[in-house]
Specification:
The chain is mostly helical. The chain is built from two helices and no strands. It is 65% helix and 0% strand.
């Protein structure tokens, strides 16, 4: 059993939302989730 990091849990959460609202498969949704989180993480905490 692998231990999920908080980041991995965030990726899974975003991936699941993307999959629920698009026709993307697991891999494509996961890649998009990583990009979305990178974009969100680049926003300074004060602004978020």
């Amino acid at each position: 059993m692998a231990v999920e990091t908080p980041y991995e849990r965030r990726v899974i959460r975003v991936r699941d939302v993307v999959k629920a609202h698009s026709g993307l498969d697991d891999n494509a949704a996961n890649e998009l989730a990583v990009q979305v989180l990178r974009a969100l993480d680049s926003i300074p905490e004060k602004i978020r």
